[in-house]
Amino acid sequence: GTWNTLTWNSHRCPSFQGLVFNNGTERLGLDYQRMIRIQHMLYIAARDHVFVVNLTTAVDKIIPQQILTWRSTDVSKCAVRGRNSDECYNYIKVLVPRNDETLFACGTNALNPACRNYRLRTLEQVGQELLGQARCPFESRQSNVGVFAGGHFYSATVTDFQASDAVIYRSLGGEGRPVLRTVKYDSKWLREPHFLHAVEYGNYVYFFFSEIAVEHTGAGKVVYSRVARVCKNDSGGSSRVLDRHWTSFLKARLNCSVPGDTFFYFDVLQSLTSVLQINQRPAVVGVFTTQTNSIPGSAVCGFYLDDIERVFNGKFKEQKNSDSVWTPVPEEHVPEPRPGSCAGEGSASSYSSSVQFPDSVLSFIKTHPLMDESVSAINSQPLITSTAKRTVLGLELDKEHHALFVAFSSCIIRVPLSRCAQHTTCKRRCLHTHDPYCIWLRTGRCADVAPGFNNPDLFYICVWSDVMSAAGSDVNSAVDSASGQCLTH
User: Fold this and answer.
1) Which positions fall inside the Sema domain (predicted)?
2) Residue 352 and which of 65, 115, 177, 308 are 20 to 30 A apart at CA?
3) What distance in Å separates the CA atoms of residue 251 and residue 253, rounded to the nearest whole number?
4) According to DSSP H, which parts of 341-387 are helical?
5) CA angle, 117 as apex, 81 and 133 as ends, to 5°?
């Protein structure tokens, strides 16, 4: 097989659409699942393959430097199950670095999930294949996240063929800490979740997802976005309560809304960044959309991690019986040490392990995982709102080469962060774009600032008063342009 690239005539954005055969007449398709960047390499997980692109050479064409092929051997068994034949492939759903030398991958494996370890540089398999249950979903459309933290693999997905048992799971840690999971078939813990992101930060692993809101008591099902956290040193509960289950699992609603007389909510989380700094404070930024039966719209909201922690240290929410409304738990009804605490820290500092927590604490956390308050967005409003439709599935920024890789289901495109060459010899257009990557050379040409470029004798310096507002409008137009190109393919 060979690969197929496509160059857009309008903006010359290189594209990768997967492997082609028979002299380019037969295209297998990409079926993009996820991508990660490790140093100067971009790893693209797709159907039956992982494509490795060298970012230093992927300027004019996106051509894989390495291709890992992992096809399922269980195709015949998959067909017998009577499911959609499109699922009888190996969709690579987990692709995370295990350490500096090893890449951990899991695939649906034709409805029989499996995991493998590969050498990062050579893509050679290391060791035996592992069972993928609770680490990887069964079908390509099912959501999942995974991250290694402290030697353990933290995953969130479904554990069964029918997708009825959603789970947040810890495994592969060897001896020391047990395998842990969320409580099975308990809608207070998880209710039809769609997992988006997992991140390690401090003493915790945070999970971001959307789910059917158990606290919404009105008619119909309503989706809320959530952040949940677990302690990395969680060892599970006692033999009586929460044995081999999380003792630190807490979750809260993420509030991305436009304020006013009546708030307009963007309730459905679609994607999320890793931890970054905003105003010198750790934060995450996510894309949210409206409910599926609502007016279509999307927004970008940011959340400070210390605001998330403040909510987790606040009041719990409870429903006394199935007919009553949800209300805050009075402080005098919350046992000690505080439920959700990590052993050896805070009010649980006198406990060396969570298995020693009193049954009253374990019983409380089992029935009260939901916090009362929502996490407010930065500035209590979205950073960006839009009503345009998007089908972007993944983004990866290549700062060094001034490019953004945009993933759609059928293709990956490389969008330059600036198009200074378009302004060629027009000084006014060059300087008035307010593009921080464009400079006007004294030789009479508009050019990109190369990484590390620092020679003021060669260019004019342009100062403007409101870079952020200009950049915001440029970002929107750039995304409109890029998504429009890929939507036609």
Assistant:
1) 1-472
2) 308
3) 7
4) 359-367
5) 35
CA distance 214 to 370: 10
Distance CA 477, CA 480 (A): 5
- Buried residues in 332-346 as b, exposed as e (16+ CB within 10 A): eeeeebbbbbbbeee
**Burial class of residue 42 (count of CB atoms within 10 Å of its CB; 0-12, 13-18, 19+):** buried
How far CA 461 is from CA of 440, 441, 451, in Å, comes to 8, 10, 17
Please choose, from the candidates 220, 156, 164, 228, the residue with its C-alpha nearest in 3D space to the C-alpha of residue 194.
156
Buried b (16+ CB within 10 A) or exposed e, 237-262: beeebbeebbbbbbbbbbbbbeeeee
The tokens describing 472, both together, are 């915001």
89 within 8 A of 110, measured Cβ to Cβ: yes
In one letter, which amino acid is 300? V
DSSP 280: T
Going by DSSP bridges, is the β-strand pair 250-255/375-376 parallel, antiparallel, or unpaired?
parallel
Other residues' Cβ atoms within 10 Å of the Cβ of residue 293: 8
Whether omega for the bond prior to residue 436 falls within 30 degrees of 0, making it cis, is no
Element housing 351 (H / E): none
The sign of the dihedral angle between the CA atoms of 441, 446, 450, 452 is positive
Judge whether 263 and 279 are in contact, CB under 8 Å: no
> Beta partners for 289?
268, 298
Residues 6+ away with beta carbon under 8 Å from 67: 19, 49, 50, 51, 52
Within 8 A by CB and 6+ apart from 233, the residues are 177, 203, 342, 343, 344, 354
What distances in angstroms separate CA 277 from CA 273, 285, 303, one per listed residue?
11, 10, 11
**Cα gap 65→45, rounded to integer Å:** 14
Residue 295 DSSP SS3 = coil
